[in-house]
Amino acid sequence: MKCSICGKEIETTFLGKIKGNYYKEDGKLIPLCNSCFKEKFGKKEQ
Ligand SMILES: [Zn+2]
To answer: Which residues sit with Cβ closer than 5 angstroms to ligand 1, an ion?
Structure first.
């Protein structure tokens, strides 16, 4: 699974779940790595 923005490989767990994030666009799930997700959505560090 690759990040749709930077193209970096996103790690997956042994269950096949990605360690990044998804967001929904036009009804499709788009995979993003954590850093791109933060940049895109401006998620604040706690
Ligand atoms: Zn990325």
So the answer is: 3, 5-6, 8, 33, 36
Distance 6 CA to ligand 1 centre (A): 4
Write down the domain spans for the chain: 1-46
Helix, strand and coil percent figures for the chain, each rounded to 5:
15, 30, 50
Q: Ligand 1 mean position to 26 CA, how many Å?
A: 20
**pLDDT (tens digit, 9 = 90+) per residue, 5-18?**
999 998 888 887 77
pLDDT at 36 exceeding the cut of 60: yes
Per the CB < 8 A criterion, the answer to whether 22 and 36 are in contact is no
The pTM of the full predicted model, rounded to 2 decimals, is: 0.66
